[in-house]
Amino acid sequence: MNNQITGREWRIRAGVVAVLAAALAAGLAGAEESYRQQEETALPPPAVAPVQTEAPAAHPQESVVPVHEFHLDNGLKLLVKEDHRAPVVVSQVWYRVGSGNEHTGSTGISHMLEHMMFKGTALHPAGELSHIIAANGGSENAFTGRDYTAYFQSLENTRLEISFALESDRMRNLLLPPEEFTKEHQVVMEERRLRTDDNPRALTQEQLVAAAFVNSPYHWTVIGWMGDIEGLTVDDVRTWYQRWYAPNNATVVVVGDVQPKDVAELAKRYFGPLTSGSAQPISKNPVEPTQHGERRIIVKAPARLPSILMGYHVPVLRGAATSWEPYALEVLAHILDGDSSSRFSRELVRGSEVAATVGAGYDLYARLPDLFTLGGTPSQGKDIKTLEMALREQVRRVREEPVNIDELERVKVQAVADNIYERDSVFYQAMQIGMLDAAGLDWRLADEYVERIRAVTAEQIQAVAHKYLLDDHLTVAVLDPQPLESGHPISDAPVGGSHVR
Amino acid sequence: MYVDSLHRICRGLLGIVLLSLSIPAIATPRIQHWQMDNGARVYFVEAHELPIVDLQVVFDAGSAHDGEHFGIASLANGLLDQGAGEWSADDIAERLARLGARLSNDSLRDMAVVSLRSLASPSTLLPAVDLLAAVIAHPTFPPDACERERSHTLTALEEENQSPASVANNAFYQAIYGNHPYAHPILGTPESVASLTRDQLVDFHHRYYVGHNAVVAMVGDLDRSGAEALAARIAGGLPAGEVAAPLPPVPGIASTVGVENIAFPATQTHVLSGQPGTWRGDPDYFPFYLGNHILGGSGLVSRISEEVREKRGLSYSADSEFLPMRVAGPFVMGLQTRNDKAGEARLVLQQTLEKFVQTGPTAEELLKAQQNVTGGFALRLDSNHKVVEYVAMIAFYGLPLDYLDRFKAQVEAVTVEKIRDVFQRRIDPAHLATVVVGGK
After folding, report:
1. How large is the ipTM?
2. What is the pLDDT of residue B10?
3. Cβ–Cβ under 8 Å, residues B324 and B280
């Protein structure tokens, strides 16, 4: 229930399209057979662990795999991490721009630009990049978040040069043909319809952040408001591109079976000749004013199930006055909703059986102050009010009582283990580094993660709960289901062979 | 012109790509295999790079074996960790958390899966495996847990019914499979789920969660003797039992024709169109696979995406897919578009398939598809997680142990003629089942 999961904003491109389709559109039931039938997806999907519960982390002290940092004269930063388990490489280019840098009236422009990045340069016309990557056995995609826009390729390890050649070209030489914009504009609006407009939960989340954030750019979601998307022009997108896409606003992250020195030389050859932007763009960070009292909103949408989403204003690592506080909030999120042993599962799903699904979310690596979220769907026969009371009771308890030492220890053990499991994914290792850097944080924080989590005490958890989980700083959004009046849900259809017309 | 420039670039870019061809073939994981006394088949790959172990136990106990009790396979699978041996659901959850181990279960049409990921040190791995063993062999199906999971399934069904994509998916399976056991939703229907009894769940487990119906896939930081001991610890408690009865053949394509319109209050219309397709071990599998790669399986560079999205901006995702299953799984094409464009998009989808079936791919398209699949082969096996998924699939469907070794050769042996032949023989664009879910 992370309130702004970057994974939700995946721009699904080659290689991942089939996966998306399986999950969303062409159906075949998401986690249906397809998940174990790798050949059917043209290319392996990037193994991005959802950014849901476990924040990026690295292995504690002794076995930290070093990250090599290089800087080019034009301001480009290169971060390289070796992983020699398989002859593969992941290359990611991160631009420090996302919906959190946008302005009212042109929300969604970062994501629109991300789509246009596949529409050609003088050297490689529209679509060619995808064909080149495909012909080389690679998978590629891009994603936009609140704090970044990133482009990536996964390739056999000797082919890194292909990635660098194409990425360096589109970093400064994008053509933005108007006729391509016209079509892609429609595609992006279809994406919004698919992800948000026809998805009652996503609509609720969009309304929650719009109510919770008054001045912060986190007021809108990454995809942007439909009216703003409609109003975007190719010239708007060009201006945005020129402002943000330059080596001095980009970090290249490479993880895989490579030698850092070779990667640095390759980077110098391809990215070195690029001119810097005028200066690293600085966005003024609008300050979110103090909230004076609880806000409640209702979202009406065609749906079968009610749901609730609650968000409290909290600090994040960047800009935190007290550096342990975000880590205490992180542990708190896991105490409530880490796995099947955490409080929500144990007490609300099993115990009182008030919830069918329930979760807590917090992103300590956001660039701007964010929300600590709770939410869920009541179980059969229970209503939203009962679930809300149960969630508030959970909050009251963590405010008033220290968590017990066993559950704290479980969270810490799990953090250590997850940190090792995450090293199984080359892609995720690159994501960790890139996300931190893009949010304006030192990527070395990833190496500290486990240590910092292990240092959190029960008193600190109670202290942050007491300080931040305040009714006056809370926004509650309730999804009020409207009838699917014209729908004929499949479960009501006769089972048999004759209904096909 | 387009193709010319592509070649020029690839040549210009990389002598290094050519060099890579002379590099020895990528080592595929060596799968070791043995069978236990109770019939369970074990498949093991050593991987010592990380101190972790990935385990999957897969039973031939998916929803295709629901019989008349739609949803029983899924509910039984979901209840496994809600009480087992001497432990309650809370005990199991807390023990796993203390060990830092991750247990999960999943139920599909063919497979019922229980997975465990653990650190490899024996002090963690052994107690975690004991939980896994109890969960698969000795679930207790506590009455209150049965009621709770039933209730959650009913909620999940409501959830499916508020999603146009899920509504379309369920209707599509129904349309192409008729009375076949693949037809009904994995979760069952509200009526069937409401009527399931604890005794039926216990019986289902007793019948299907048995040695002869199980495969164990293991990847991780173990040696052979450690793996043998571990496999015995995982699956040794299963009674031998009997293999599941084979599934009936799926209906022929002639029975799948027509359009089903389902009104749904949404801004987009979801379209799914297809037929029963291919199965694991099908001699036509690789021509289908490569053909579909070109038709709609390779993301933005596929024909369907090119026609629907890149040329016309009609849909965010448009693709096609073959899901090979125990018996013919679905071939399906899908897209979503705003309601007033649904007719046009459907027509484009249909025409793209017709043209492909008629003329097949070009030699150029096939070559690029083969380059994509073989050139990206290392990416399919670059994590223990991906390897264990492959091993479980190979084990479950009884594919040859050298399946991965031969994969590239099989891909390279596909020709334009073979693709054209197999699509013309087995895919009939005039007899597609189409499901349209959306507003007007």
Report:
1. 0.91
2. 32
3. yes
